[in-house]
Write a structure and sequence with these properties.
- Helices cover 53% and strands 0% of the residues.
- It is mostly helical and 196 residues long.
- It has two domains: 88 residues, no CATH class; 95 residues, no CATH class.
- The C terminus is likely disordered.
């Protein structure tokens, strides 16, 4: 079956526009060169997947974009900030009949099993997304993996701790970006710190 963008599907306004269906080839060509062009390609591929009706896969590509080694001053990053808000938009706008998976559990697993380049930074980014996902999709419908927490002794870091690590490891003002995205979604030190 030929892949296509869904007719009438609203594009995510927080991601670059695409005019055709993209495939994994757009990021595969970079191999292990996680530069700014890779970042932009991953964002574009996420948009294409969203337009195909593949919200869960779009979130995976947005995760992949965070593998890029960025300074924060690149034109692409200034035009298309790190995709914390885009991830929330995808979760908020995913139709009920479309597969999204459990983003809360996904980000918990991503944070606790992180490997590869800049894994410490990416682990804290995953914890930031975990807190955002809990606020956006809710803990009742999308619970944490309590079995993993119990078996592996996972300690969920508080939101303020996540921000402190992003301030130390991330691009300039990354923690401010996350705080701003979180503010409108009930996450933060004023009661949105989702500790078990």
């Amino acid at each position: 079956m030929k892949r296509k963008h869904l007719e009438g599907r609203e594009a995510c306004p927080l991601l670059p526009r695409v005019d055709r269906v993209l495939t994994a080839e757009v990021t595969a060509v970079f191999k292990r060169s996680y530069n700014v062009d890779f970042y932009l390609a991953a964002l574009r591929y996420a948009q294409s997947l969203w337009l195909e009706g593949k919200a869960a896969q779009a979130l995976l590509q947005l995760n992949k974009s965070l593998m890029a080694e960025l300074s924060g001053g690149e034109d692409a990053v200034l035009a298309w900030p790190l995709p914390y808000a885009a991830k929330c938009w995808v979760m908020e706008n995913c139709p009920a009949d479309e597969f999204l998976g459990n983003p809360v559990r996904h980000y918990q697993h991503l944070a606790t099993r992180m490997r590869g380049p800049r894994s410490e930074l990416r682990r804290w980014r995953a914890w930031a997304c975990f807190h955002l996902a809990e606020a956006v999709v809710g803990q009742e419908a999308n619970p944490r993996d309590q079995l993993q927490i119990t078996r592996e002794g996972v300690e969920i870091p508080g939101f303020d701790e996540v921000l402190a690590h992003l301030a130390r490891l991330g691009i300039p003002r990354e923690e401010d970006l996350v705080r701003e995205v979180a503010a409108g979604r009930g996450v933060g030190s004023s009661g949105g710190d989702f500790r078990p």
